[in-house]
């Protein structure tokens, strides 16, 4: 399969190229904060089966049992000093190239959710994960790239997440499953790189005008 071949080749290449970046980050994390380098958390994968996702540690080890639990807000006190930079630049996600290499994830697909959060998704969402592998990026990740900011500004973060964010993500990922192709995946990777540089860009809708129109600015009001 072309997509899997692409994932293997480019995840391996990325890990080799990023090694000089990883080494100083690993050293800093090891000797600061709680001394944790990687954070492995159970997420829901393809076939609705859990797997361990790999990230650079950015939060306190017990953060899922503190404060807002699985919901992270902007300036969340559970985030470590270096973690703020890693999360803002998305560098904390780079170890997931390993998850791609071993087949637990793909470059593009629905963002894998914590098992406790996945339980709040409607039953129909199981069909999404029965058909595609979770990804590092995708339509939902691009549109909700500032999810922390959306929930921070919301009057009720938990209500907004469960009743507005989740239904929107379901619609977006259903669109992806129904319309995905290798070419679209390549375009989504390029758009992801662009919106990191230009966060307010509306490029996704210009390239894919038929994606469900989600106005995140009105959420949580």
Task: Provide a short characterization of the protein structure.
By secondary structure, the chain is mostly helical. The protein contains 10 helices and 4 strands; from the N terminus they run H-E-E-H-H-E-H-H-E-H-H-H-H-H.
Can you walk through the features of this model?
- This protein is mainly α.
- Strands 1-2 form a two-stranded antiparallel ribbon. A two-stranded parallel ribbon has the order 3-4.
- A hairpin with a 5-residue loop joins strand 1 and strand 2.
- Helix 7 packs antiparallel against helix 8.
- It is globular and about 45 Å long.
- The relative contact order is 0.13.
- The mean pLDDT is 90.
Keywords summarizing the entry:
221 residues, mainly alpha, two-stranded antiparallel ribbon, two-stranded parallel ribbon
């Amino acid at each position: 399969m072309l997509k899997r071949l692409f994932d293997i080749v480019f995840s391996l290449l990325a890990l080799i190229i990023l090694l000089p970046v990883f080494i100083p980050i690993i050293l800093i994390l090891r000797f600061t904060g709680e001394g944790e380098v990687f954070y492995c958390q159970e997420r829901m994968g393809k076939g609705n089966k859990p797997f361990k996702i790999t990230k650079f540690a950015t939060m306190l080890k017990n953060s899922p049992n503190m404060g807002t639990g699985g919901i992270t807000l902007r300036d969340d006190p559970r985030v470590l000093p270096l973690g703020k930079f890693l999360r803002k630049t998305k560098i904390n996600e780079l170890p997931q190239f390993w998850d791609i290499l071993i087949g637990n994830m793909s470059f593009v697909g629905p963002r894998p959710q914590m098992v406790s959060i996945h339980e709040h998704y409607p039953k129909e969402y199981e069909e999404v994960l029965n058909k595609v592998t979770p990804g590092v990026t995708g339509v939902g990740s691009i549109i909700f790239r500032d999810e922390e900011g959306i929930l921070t500004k919301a009057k009720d973060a938990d209500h907004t997440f469960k009743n507005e964010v989740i239904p929107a993500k379901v619609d977006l990922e259903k669109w992806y499953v129904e319309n995905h192709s290798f070419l679209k995946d390549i375009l989504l990777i390029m758009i992801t790189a662009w919106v990191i540089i230009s966060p307010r860009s509306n490029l996704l809708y210009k390239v894919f005008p038929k994606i469900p129109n989600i106005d995140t600015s009105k959420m949580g009001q």
